[in-house]
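Record type: monomer structure entry
Structure origin: computed from sequence
Chain ID: A
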Amino acid sequence: MPTHTDGDSGEVCTVRCEGDGPLLAQGPLRVRVPGEEDARSESRVWFCRCGHSGNKPFCDGSHRDAGFEASGPINTTRAVASDHVGEDRAAVVVGANANGPYRFDGVIELSGAGHEGTARFASPSLCRCGASKNKPFCDGAHKEIEFEAEGL
């Protein structure tokens, strides 16, 4: 599975939860990568969300061997109304806290396999350790399991 491609192919950043697999982010993105000073411009990225990839933050297929399972429907209680999103279509910057969640700085449109429709979220923190009980969102479980990964 490819991890990323260069370019800018959309107006809104969309993030799709791929069943029991990675997060697929598409659209205008700037991705922070360990060891690189500047964020990369990307149009499509598969982010690991099981916590087992040997190529973090990118998915390397480890979720299959790890037995990763996503939980339930996407909780939309923190979704923002479309009229509150604004017209700013600047690239979403994706980073991550050391040993913690992904940070999507900007508005994303979130959807998932088995979920109807989409919802927009402003600057969500998404789980990358695989242990959240509120996937795809972070619930702090990374602290309990002592998840380790570089910050971005």
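Annotation 1: Residues 1-10 have pLDDT under 50 and may be disordered.
Annotation 2: The two ends are 22 Å apart (CA to CA).
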